[in-house]
Amino acid sequence: VPLDGTTVLIVDDDADSVEILGYVVSDARASVRTATSGREALEILAGWKPQVLLLDVDMPLMDGYQLLGAIRSNPELCDIPAVAITGRSCPSDKQQAFEAGFSVHIAKPFEAEALIDLVEWLASRPARRTRGGPLPPSSVSLP
Amino acid sequence: MLRDFVNANRNQILAQARLRVIERSGAHAVRQTILGAAADEDRTKGLPIFLDQLGEALRRARAHEKLDHTEIQESAHQHGHDLFHHGLSVDQVVHDYGDLCQVITNLAVEQKASVDVVEFGTLNLCLDDAIAGAVLAYSKEHDRAVTTRGAEHLGVLAHEMRNVLNSAILAFGSIKEGVVAISGSTSAILDRSHLRLQALIDRSLADVRLDVGLHDVALIPVLEILRDVAIGAALVAQPRGIHLAVANADPTVFVEGDRQILAAAVANLLQNAMKFTRQGTTVKLGATATETRVLIEVEDECGGLPPGKAEDLFRPFEQRGADRSGLGLGLAICLKAAKASAGELHVRDLPARGCVFTLDLPRKPAPPPVLALP
Q1: What distances in angstroms separate CA B328 from CA A92, B156, B313, one per listed residue?
Q2: How many CB atoms lie within 10 A of CB B219?
Q3: ipTM of the complex
Q4: Is residue A54 helix, strand or coil?
Q5: Closest chain B residue to A16 measured between Cα atoms?
Q6: Per residue in B136-149, is it b (16+ CB within 10 Å) or e — as a string?
Q7: Which DSSP symbol is given to B317?
Q8: Each residue's pLDDT tens digit, B250-292
């Protein structure tokens, strides 16, 4: 059971997207909470610290970059690895994600296994990313 | 000599050319053109430059020297480039030069200035060069803008399709594994993803048809437009905890337009409403009619519009309350659809509650009933 006990927060303004991502990660035995806006996510994070953040980049009112900025400004939460989940796959989109502080950029569409491998890999790393760690899943972009 | 005449009457020529633009295009055009907006240095620089070049060309013609067509074309090229970016149409670009020619010749006649055939020919040659240069640059900029817009739209479409496709792939993956029931919520996600993909394709086709003017115009009962979009919208509303309330429409109320384009416009308004309305609230779809107008209204409970110009919402890539690019084509397409159907698109703020988008179309008389013959 790859994600047994791993805690994950999923944030996406698209109800179907958040539901199916939640299902996929929960099915791998992760403990999942979901939010459909940046504000809702910050309310959850005020009382709960997940091991991995899966954030949609394109959300109204507060996009994924702004949300991560708000999360990173909290010393308690600044070390949580964050995944940018987006339909954008240009090199400039990836660069923007990394500059905003995302650990990984994953472009839609992707298979469930790729996401589970990624969450497992991120959750198993030391709190802050260091060079020379285990190899990341092959289907994602890293800085 | 024409050269001396132009030099002596330079200010009057500039002023009269400006007046001609006012008469031809109205006050709005004056703000938009090089000939009118004295405060806008960028828009006024073209005319005096052309007059200088004309003076030099007349001098050369008189001295039997070769005319430098390149210089006029190059500065006119820059002029055409600037005018495109100031939002002028190509006919305004041409007419601006035409106005100048008229002013010079009229004034010369008025003052009984002698203009010989060679000078008149030189004036026409210079105008030809200038118009050709300006129109060429204008066309290039226009083509570039169309290409850029097309690429942007394609990028948005790809992005939106990837989002929906991702949900479909993950949902189908789960179903394929046999761990979820075929009639369960995961299958419902797959169902909705298909509908959303269909809506995206319909919207894109409507956009393309609007751009190329390919409209299949017919009389359409408003009731049927609402029915066309309500079924798909209800499927999207339900999992989001949104109540979709569709009011009964009068079956005798008709509008004229392209059914696919109008349905895509209303579907976009609904999609927009469901994106921004708060969870657990109601989105209302309805139509009212007067003797001459039909108002198709979509009301949401988004909490009210953000400060700023409501019209900005109809610009491509503009979204309520979020300054980000890449999304927000839906309302721009609705506006195009409204205009193509001789209608308008309005938005009304309901402060602290929500907003109402109204597709305002001309009402058309119902077609005569088809009689069944024995």
Answers
A1: 20, 9, 8
A2: 13
A3: 0.85
A4: strand
A5: B189
A6: ebbeebeeeeeeee
A7: T
A8: 999 999 999 988 998 999 899 889 888 888 899 999 999 999 9
